[in-house]
Amino acid sequence: MTTEAEAQRLDAAxxxxxxRGRFDLPEGVLYLDGNSLGPLPNSTxxxxxxxxxxxxxxxxxxxxxxxxxxxxxxxxxxxLPQRIGAAIAPLIGAQAHEVIACDSTSVNIFKLIWAALxxxxxxxxxxxVVLSEPGNFPTDLYMIExxxxxxxxxxxxxxxxxxxxxxxxxxxxxxxxxxxxxxxxMLDMARLTAAAHDRGALVLWDLSHSVGAVPVxxxxxxxxxxxxxxxxxxxxxxxxxxxxxxxERHLHALEQPLTGxxxxxxxxxxxxxxxxxxxxxxxxxxxxxxxxxSALESGVAITAEAGIxxxxxxxxxxxxxxxxxxxxxxxxxxxxSPDDPAGRGSQLSFRHEHAxxxxxxxxxxxxxxxxRAPDILRFGFGPLYIGYEDLxxxxxxxxxxxxxxxxxxxxxxxxxxxx
Amino acid sequence: MTTEAEAQRLDAAxxxxxxRGRFDLPEGVLYLDGNSLGPLPNSTxxxxxxxxxxxxxxxxxxxxxxxxxxxxxxxxxxxLPQRIGAAIAPLIGAQAHEVIACDSTSVNIFKLIWAALxxxxxxxxxxxVVLSEPGNFPTDLYMIExxxxxxxxxxxxxxxxxxxxxxxxxxxxxxxxxxxxxxxxMLDMARLTAAAHDRGALVLWDLSHSVGAVPVxxxxxxxxxxxxxxxxxxxxxxxxxxxxxxxERHLHALEQPLTGxxxxxxxxxxxxxxxxxxxxxxxxxxxxxxxxxSALESGVAITAEAGIxxxxxxxxxxxxxxxxxxxxxxxxxxxxSPDDPAGRGSQLSFRHEHAxxxxxxxxxxxxxxxxRAPDILRFGFGPLYIGYEDLxxxxxxxxxxxxxxxxxxxxxxxxxxxx
Lengths: 419, 419
Description:
The structure is a homodimer.
Chain A: H1 4-13, E1 30-31, H2 42-58, H3 80-88, E2 99-102, H4 105-120, E3 129-132, H5 138-149, E4 154-157, H6 163-166, E5 171-177, H7 189-198, E6 202-206, H8 218-221, E7 225-228, E8 242-246, H9 248-251, H10 290-306, H11 308-329, E9 347-351, H12 355-364, E10 367-368, E11 370-372, E12 376-380, H13 388-404, H14 410-413
Parallel strand pairs in A: 1-10, 3-4, 3-5, 5-6, 6-7
Antiparallel strand pairs in A: 2-8, 7-8, 9-12, 11-12
Helix pairs in contact in A: 1-13, 2-10, 3-10, 4-5, 11-13
Subunit structure (chains A, B): Homodimer.
Pfam family, one (chains A, B): KYNU_C
Organism (chains A, B): Qipengyuania oceanensis
């Protein structure tokens, strides 16, 4: 059932439908790339205007500790990392004091791999392997390489079906991305975490493509560490700060290598020697980026308001509907995402040898998905602002572009860097 | 000559006077803390509104590579780090391809200490000492500690007059802050760099309190590395991205430990293995923070427009004028900044045992300077927006607060975290 009438019925029955009005998506655009960069919430526009004109412009340096009296919202800048962490926590099955917003996903991966290796160094110093899968998101793999170059880590890659066999006594840390950026495949967090723990390894989950769209239960899975991205389903804005999670049981022993002043117990005592702050705060390094943090806090607030259960339910329904539309219109286009909606993220990926120009031709029509090398067309379904009729239209555009060969033009083949 | 008439004469003759209108400083505020957080330029307010509504809101993911047609300014997001680096370069005596904007000052310090240690490891592996001075800005010292904990570095501190004596064959890197955050004392970059090079050490300069206010000639001094802060005299906004400099002669051998995807030669090929980008680009790590970068680019543009020579000349004249005002009104208040305006940054610091409540009492009057533990009152002079009459007024407020004991109230003694 992928008729227009059915799409309209689903839209009308959608309990999250009213969130659509919280985003002014541009006229004529069907935005299926919120898994790469979430759109601008109207409340974030307002919040940023307040931060710029009021908090920075009028409050100046004072806003670190208290906001100008005339500003109601916001909150002092100094607590942004902790406030955002606390707001993200319920979306990922964590406690407020286990999560903090800071730096980029890459930098947080570095801190937490290092921290895990440090915790594992107690034994005989043999456990140095960081195990991941080939084809994981590149920055995850590259950050392991950086530590390998320092002699601190040894990178081992095993296909996802061979992970359990590759978990031997040399493995210090299993580091995986929960939802695969390219295929949308979602891993069984609880099972893989337990398998790693059985072999004495710790586990770090990258939640970049999960948070805000799929169920994440870090505590239930007994995960040790996690990181995630602020600019995808959390709608935190381009290059938004990332977040990091450390299970409560590890907080007392947590050490990290980027020992900047904001992670100090008393940063404003200006002591010469580093004394780490208590708990998760010690993951902070330099001065927090206030503009990015403020946008992220606003984006997380909408996600929290909608509620993760409703977001997950709608994400699954959207992806199932789009899959059915594409199946009907383009029965020969292979979908490389898992069949079971409970086994994938809020995205669907299709393989086509001309994926790049097809993607460009769709963008020219206002249907924004993305291309992932070498041959993947990827569509993400932001459950706050995408509707079923949007998806039917997008699938129709896709079918027309493929069927007519509209993509086969020089202008669509020319490559630019794409994120 | 610190009369009102003289202040007005100096303001009228100030060639940078017209830049004052580029900032809407709040009514009733005398802002002498631009060395901690620069104020909001009007052009940055406009630029950010364009970034938020146009580039993010309308352009969405497309803005990474091209901006919506209706947007004139800006430029695609993907080149922000390089564009800002190129704009900062002439302010610090560097070439465009030697500077890049990224991450925080602390994170960039980590990368460059590590890079220097890596370059020095070629010898006999003995050079592990990173030499700095006690009382340097804390995050600089803390980042060395993080590397010490990894076994990669050994921290050695020597008072600034003993630095040359402490430069022995174990020193891999001399790392100093050019203008001291607390006293404003400026070091002789060329002399200390030469002394370090004579002993085979590399040199990393922290320019956080220098850039945009004092002459910096990295190439002339033959400096190897530098970092600096975007949110002080560059007026880049709260928590703005930082920048990093690597001398051209080191770029080919440069390695850094935070090997994130944006530092990859071809990030959008999504390869499993890390291949560093050419040149300074390899200092990038995670996805650049677009909101902060955009504000920084705008702030740097004003600085560049005013020209560093004019900014330096005015900074010196402002600080001399304020010193003369305070000397006349409070002859017993010791100034701990160097006497020679060419030997200090664009700030003056005074010692008073009640510096904290005095600072708070001044803030209550709208005179915003800052306190640095344990007993320093610090005033910074942003040459783009501060005038001589402002300084005369501020000195009069200071004298009244001290003379009347107005500071001696509970409300001014209560401490909060202060940046």
